[in-house]
Design brief:
The complex is a heterodimer of chains A (about 150) and B (about 110). Chain A has about 150 residues and is of the alpha+beta class. Chain A contains 4 helices and 7 strands. The chains are: A alpha+beta (about 150), B alpha+beta (about 110).
Chain lengths: ~150, ~110
């Protein structure tokens, strides 16, 4: 059985090259604040810009926490990286899902950014492994996410 | 979000038990009847039935009658709860990205 990939797209006011650069170089600046998995909150999130390059976050004190790795690095059009983050916001080397981001020009200085999160079947095992803590941790996480989503809407 | 979270927590809880996880993983490979599941697990058939009941209640597994047997398969709706959570997460993230790009454009090239 496969789970349908998650697909979202937005149009941004920048040409593909700039959109790609902002997406990757400034990931730590634009991502929702709760997207951090280290012991202390991330200050930056970085992509080592090459296939097999690490995707990681870095905290104020310099601590590095791995997120996953780059699979495809093709600026300005396409980026694929592994998403090995559990629903508890922790890195799990055994959980491998993929995020593909494509940057498609749409008119002068605009780009359609499409994000696909796939291979979600892996979350079946993740859910099992972390069920207990999820049972404890989810209501709080979801509540803050709900608030966040409400503010964003 | 409330319904999604409740369903997701049920699904996570149901999969916390090793035998249920084994059954879930077996069903991920394709539909099966109780007998087939029990044959490959170190538990009795009634025990398998009991686990299937929990998985069903959590929305992870569905059953369909086939002759005298009942065939079990994964119910995409249960897994869907986890997917929904991630889905909402990415929707917000991309919105945040678009907004950030806008802000950058305003800062760097005021029109």
């Amino acid at each position: 059985m496969t789970i349908a990939p998650i697909v979202h797209s937005v149009e941004v006011k920048a040409a593909p090259a700039r959109a790609f650069a902002l997406f990757t170089a400034d990931f730590g600046k634009w991502r929702p604040a709760m997207m951090t998995i280290g012991a202390s909150p991330a200050v930056t999130i970085q992509f080592d810009p090459k296939p097999d390059g690490a995707v990681f976050e870095q905290a104020q004190d310099g601590t590095v926490t791995l997120w996953g790795k780059v699979l495809v690095w093709e600026p300005p059009a396409r980026l694929v990286f592994t998403w090995q983050i559990t629903s508890r916001w922790t890195y799990d080397p055994d959980l491998v899902t993929e995020v593909e981001v494509s940057f498609e020009p749409v008119g002068e200085g605009r780009t359609k950014v499409t994000l696909m999160h796939r291979k979600l079947e892996a979350y079946g095992a993740d859910a099992a492994a972390h069920s207990e803590s999820l049972r404890n941790g989810w209501p709080g996480i979801l509540a803050s996410f709900g608030e966040y989503a409400g503010v964003q809407a | 979000m409330t319904n999604v979270s409740a369903a997701a927590i049920d699904a996570f809880g149901a999969l916390g038990e090793p035998t249920r996880r084994a059954i879930f993983e077996r069903l991920a490979q394709g539909p099966a009847a109780v007998g087939e599941l029990a044959a490959n697990l170190p538990v009795t058939r009634p025990a398998v039935s009991q686990h299937l009941k929990v998985l069903k209640e959590a929305g992870l597994v569905s059953e369909t009658p086939e002759g005298t047997r009942r065939i079990y398969r994964l119910d995409p709706r249960g897994i869907g709860a986890m997917r929904d959570w991630l889905d909402a997460h990415w929707a917000s993230a991309l919105e945040a990205f678009a907004q950030y790009v806008d802000e950058q454009a305003q800062e760097e090239s005021p029109e």
